[in-house]
Amino acid sequence: xxxxxxxxxxxxxxxxxxxxxxxxxxxxxxxxxxxxxxxxxxxxxxxxxxxxxxxxxxxxxxxxxxxxxxxxxxxxxxxxxxxxxxxxxxxxxxxxxxxxxxxxxxxxxxxxxxxxxxxxxxxxxxxxxxxxxxxxxxxxxxxxxxxxxxxxxxxxxxxxxxxxxxxxxxxxxxxxxxxxxxxxxxxxxxxxxxxxxxxxxxxxxxxxxxxxxxxxxxxxxxxxxxxxxxxxxxxxxxxxxxxxxxxxxxxxxxxxxxxxxxxxxxxxxxxxxxxxxxxxxxxxxxxxxxxxxxxxxxxxxxxxxxxxxxxxxxxxxxxxxxxxxxxxxxxxxxxxxxxxxxxxxxxxxxxxxxxxxxxxxxxxxxxxxxxxxxxxxxxxxxxxxxxxxxxxxxxxxxxxxxxxxxxxxxxxxxxxxxxxxxxxxxxxxxxxxxxxxxxxxxxxxxxxxxxxxxxxxxxxxxxxxxxxxxxxxxxxxxxxxxxxxxxxx
Length: 489
Ligand code: MN
Hints:
There is one protein chain. By secondary structure, this protein is of the alpha+beta class. It folds into 3 domains: 3-188, Hypothetical protein af1432, CATH 1.10.3210; 190-345, 2-Layer Sandwich (Beta Polymerase, domain 2), CATH 3.30.460; 382-488, Roll (Ubiquitin-like (UB roll)), CATH 3.10.20. Helix content is 58%, strand content 11%. It has 20 helices and 11 strands. A hairpin with a 5-residue loop joins strand 7 and strand 8. Helix 8 (128-143) packs parallel to helix 10 (174-188) and helix 9 packs antiparallel against helix 10. The N and C termini lie far apart (77 Å). It binds manganese (II) ion. Manganese (II) ion (MN) binds at residues 47, 71-72, 137.
C-alpha cells in the first residue's frame, strides 16, 4: 500500500481534498512508528496506510483519512492530543484521540462487552467518524489475524461479530460489515465456512455468472430500446449472511434462492419505476415480492425498489433498482451520507448534532418496525439500553430503567428535584420504562424538598435507590434537627 494510492482515492472522492495534509500525516506517522513491526513482520506503517485506504474506499472525508493514518501515533509516542492539534488541527487531533480512548478497555468477559459497547456509543455521539476509523482499523487487523495466537484471534473475531458488525449495520456501512463478518465467520466456524465456500464459490458461481450475464443482455437490450441510461451489476450474498439464513430458517444451501441479485442503477427516481415496469413486462413477478423502499425507506434509511421474478429458465431472480445516490448510500451508509451532505458547503466545520440526531432517528425507528433492527437490538444491546439527554449525551441504563434512574444518572440534585419528564418530547410518567434511543428531559422544581418515597418501588439502578434513601434520611434528620437542636449547636 502506498500513500499515493490513498491520495488518489481521496481525490477521487473529493477533488478539493487537502492532499498536503494527508502527505504530512504520512510523514509524521512514518517517523513515529519508525522501525516498529507488526506481528505479521510487516512494518507498522503498513497498518496505518491500510486503515486509511479502507476509509477512503468508504468515501470518508479527507480529515478522517488523515486521522486514519495517524490513528496509532498517540499510543506509540509521547505526543499529546495538543501536539497533534498544532500539527494537523484540532479536528484531526480529536479523531485520533477518540480512537485511542476506545482501546483502553479494562474489563474481561461480559463486563468488557458492555464497557466497549458503552465506549463505542459515547464516541459515536461525539463524532461518528471515530467509529468509522475504528471499523477500518479492525478490518485490517482481521485481515492479518493469522499472525496472532489462537486465543486472541478468537476473542477479536467474536467481539467483531457481536459488537462491530452489528453497529456497522446500524450505521449502514454495509461494505465494512460484510467484510468483517466473512472474516470472523472463517475463524469462528472454520468447518462451516469451508463447506459453504466450496459449494458457493466452486459449484455455483460459474453457473450463476453465466445466468446473470444472460439476464444482463436481455434487460440491457430492452432498457436501451426504451432510451434509459443504466448500469447493471450483480452481487452475490456474502457467506456469513447465507450461513445465518440457513441457520435461522433451517434451510439447506440449495434452498436459499436469494444468493444473488441484480442491481439496476439509473439516473432518476422516475427511471427506477420505469425500469420496474420493464422488468415486469419481461418476466412474471412473484406475488408479494415487490417492495417499494423508495416511497417507504427502511428504518436505517435504505432506499431501492425490489422485485423478484421468474426469470429465464423459470429461475427465481431478484432485482434491486435504485439511483446512483441511493446506491452509494446503500454501500457506504453514514460515510457516504456525510459526503453528500457536505458537498454543498465544505467550509463549514463538521457539525455533531446532525449525526447524533441521525443515530437517534435510526434507533427510534428501530423500536417500532423492522425485524432487522430488532435483531440488532437483541444482539447489540442485550439487557442494556442507551438513552440520550436533549444535548445528545449518552447514558447506558439497565433495561426497564425509568426517568428517575436517568435523572439520578445525570446528577443527584436533578434526581432529588425531579417533578416530571419529557420522553421524546412528550410528557411521560416518572415510572415509564425507557426504551433504547429515547431522549429524556427531566423537569425539575427547584423548590422541591426531596425525592418521593414511592420512587423506591420502581427505580432499577442501585445508584438511584441509594441516592433516594440518603436524601430521605437527610430530610428526616433535618426535621428532627429543627425540632430538637442537637447538642453543641
Ligand atoms: Mn490500529
